[in-house]
Inverse folding.
């Protein structure tokens, strides 16, 4: 089985997140059997300004509840320590088995910082990275070793121009967020 792992803050989950999961589920070349969506518990790469874990988890479950390929996991949220991709991956492999192929879904922004991740060399042995292009991140700015690594798959995706930070700002300033999030999530937030 080919299992893709898509972690993030999902603070809140927006249309870009949905489009990424849809792409992964439907791309014939990737041929992914299952996508595990993992809202982060305590983030390792940024200040913890997240909404309550259970709220973000429920938003993700609401969005993907009808997609048979997607499982939303609380594996990081139920931990009381900082979340690292490597530690989560080891747990996922213990749960689902070593015989599967694992893929980590990241954006170009994460690829740029991949060498700062905990045990990144081990990660490259355990998973292939599916990398979504992002605006303002150019291939020629990326680490050449990573770009040429056969464990890194750079997608030719359209840009999903959504930002959770921008959505939170719009909510704070009482601006409409309808273009950015699913109506279910808008209802959930308000």
């Amino acid at each position: 089985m080919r299992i893709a792992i898509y972690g993030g803050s999902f603070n809140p989950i927006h249309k870009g997140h949905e489009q990424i999961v849809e792409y992964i589920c439907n791309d014939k070349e990737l041929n992914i059997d299952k996508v595990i969506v993992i809202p982060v518990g305590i983030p390792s790469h940024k200040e913890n300004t997240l909404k309550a874990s259970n709220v973000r988890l429920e938003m993700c479950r609401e969005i993907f509840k009808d997609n048979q390929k997607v499982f939303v996991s609380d594996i990081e949220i139920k931990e009381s320590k900082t979340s690292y991709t490597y530690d989560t991956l080891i747990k996922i492999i213990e749960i689902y088995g070593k015989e599967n192929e694992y893929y980590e879904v990241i954006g170009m922004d994460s690829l740029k910082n991949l060498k700062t991740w905990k045990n990144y060399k081990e990660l490259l042995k355990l998973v292939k990275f599916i990398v979504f292009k992002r605006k303002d991140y150019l291939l020629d700015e990326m680490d050449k070793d990573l770009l040429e690594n056969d464990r890194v798959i750079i997608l030719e995706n359209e840009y999903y121009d959504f930002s959770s930070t921008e959505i939170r700002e719009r909510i704070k300033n009482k601006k409409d967020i309808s273009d950015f999030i699913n109506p279910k999530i808008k209802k959930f937030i308000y």
